[in-house]
Amino acid sequence: MRTSGILLHISSLPSPGGIGSLGKEAYAFADFLHASGLRIWQVLPIGPVGYGESPYQSTSVFAGNPLLISCRSLREEGLLDYDDAEEFTPDNPAVVDYDAVRPNKDMLLRRCFAQSRERLADAVEQFRRDNPWVSDYALFTALKTHFSGLMYTAWPDEDIRRRKPEAIRKYTEMLRSEIDFHIFCQYLFRRQWMSLKQYCNERSIMLFGDMPIYVAEDSADTWTHPEIFQLDRNLIPKKVAGVPPDYFSADGQLWGNPLYRWHRLRRRGYDWWVDRMRGMASLFDIIRIDHFIGFANYYSVKHGMPNARSGKWIVGPGKKLFQVLNRELPGIRIVAEDLGCVNDRVRKLLDWCGYPGMKVLTFGFDSDESNPHFIDHYTANTVAYTGTHDNDTVRGWADKAAPEALAFAGKKLGFSTPEEAPEAFIRALFESPCDTVIVPMQDVLGLDGSARMNFPGTTGGNWKWRMKPDALSSELSLRYYTLNRQTNRR
User: Fold this and answer.
1) Whole-prediction pTM
2) Which of 29, 46, 437, 442 sits CB 3.0–4.6 Å from 451 for a disulfide?
């Protein structure tokens, strides 16, 4: 079936409190999708954000981001009392001010914990029993606070760094209230997320999640399961992830994430990966695996190197991992983010898995018609985008494109000016043979490069864009409903 959707992260919704949340604005967006004939809502990773506010450097692959909890919804349920004036109101509602949002949301959630922990005690306890990861995550998060935010490898108590049983018991008792608070927040997040998911599914809308292949070095995941990562005796990564130098970067990209001990995971039947994917499948109808390339072959750089030039490619787990996932999780829907260094090994693995890969339309006009992202090369088993969170908006691309590239795109897609580019790109995408097409909300609104979500390789100033409260309209909904009908997408 031919479908279409929009990429809009939860944080970008125009919710109260200075950041998008799982409250009524999320339900209003679901209503907009339904009325527009759009059947997919894609979001970025929903875990607690890490360094630089990046959702791709989360402190847990299993946890939800407490900043996305709707305090208004908690108040409507009678779980939290507060006045509107106590909730942060930003001077500029078009961006997220994380430094102001975080302490305000934390204050309100702690009040909710104090007011409703007894009322919700049974439900929270059941949630804890059903989700074994949450106790480790909550202890890790409490310990981070206790040790003034230090990376876990720098915690002054070696016994808790290494998770010695006596140390676990000691700190679990010492930090019991803080641990219970973080478990409580995870329960609230999951409760609100699953309610939104049910609302979307009842309206034939699929939630499309994003899963980074790697975990953050300073995370509950590496602390809890150091044996599955390439760490030395001091728990410091031996080798880290990245990508080699290319046309865009002479030094390559040094991501710094610890790499997996795939041989050890294979001996364990890839149990950690099965648990991770099972968790994702409970939250999402479709899962995008970021950097799918790394399963075929991954780029390994010695820890401490100043750049990624000295790395080398290592063979990944390949089919063996996906044979296990297919057996343990039949029917799981996966999209492979295969952008980057695609070689024969990657192509063979993708063909064997049968997962759709990705195309990005703004990538298709920087050379000639042999470019793999040129629209004439698109096929049915592909998820095609105008752009992703890592790219400029279409309008931003058109404003900055070389004259020959803009003329090439304009001739192919039928537009003359940068202002006309977003609508032309979107129509071409919808008319393409791809079974699934996704448009970032910024392109739906025709916004320029100031609305870009992320500049890869930079920290600070990213992940902040928010949609204005009056952005959705019946006229916009009708336009997309008509476009879906015209292109046989439903």
Assistant:
1) 0.97
2) 442
Report how far residue 227's alpha carbon sits from residue 157's, in angstroms, rounded to the nearest whole number.
20
334 within 8 A of 322, measured Cβ to Cβ: no
Is 290 one of the annotated active-site residues of the chain?
A: yes
> How many CB atoms neighbour CB 370 within 10 A?
7
Burial class (CB in 10 A: 0-12, 13-18, 19+), 335: buried
d(CA 435, CA 433): 6
- Sheet harboring 297-302: ordered strands across? 253-258, 239-243, 297-302, 312-315
pLDDT in tens, 31-73: 999 999 999 999 999 999 988 999 999 999 999 999 999 999 9
Instruction: Please give, one letter per residue, the 3-state secondary structure of 130-179.
Output: HCCHHHHHHHHHHHHHHCCCCCHHHCCCHHHHCCCHHHHHHHHHHCHHHH
Q: Which of 386, 450, 475, 446 is CA-nearest to residue 94?
A: 450
CB-hemisphere CA count at 13 Å for 290? Answer: 18
| Helix, strand, coil share (%) of the chain residues, nearest 5 | 45, 15, 40
Closest CA to 140 of 112, 121, 168: 168
Set 136, 178, 337, 423: catalytic member:
337
Whether 337 sits among the annotated catalytic residues: the reply is yes
pLDDT digits over 228-280, tens only?
A: 999 999 999 999 999 999 876 889 989 999 999 999 999 999 999 999 999 99
CA distance 127 to 142: 19
Task: Give me the catalytic one of 31, 159, 271, 290.
Answer: 290
Tokens of 451: 């609305």
pLDDT tens sequence across 180-233: 999 999 999 999 999 999 999 999 999 999 999 999 999 999 999 999 999 999
Q: Are 237 and 226 in contact (CB under 8 A)?
A: no
Q: Are 370 and 389 in contact (CB under 8 A)?
A: no
Give the single-character DSSP code of 256: E
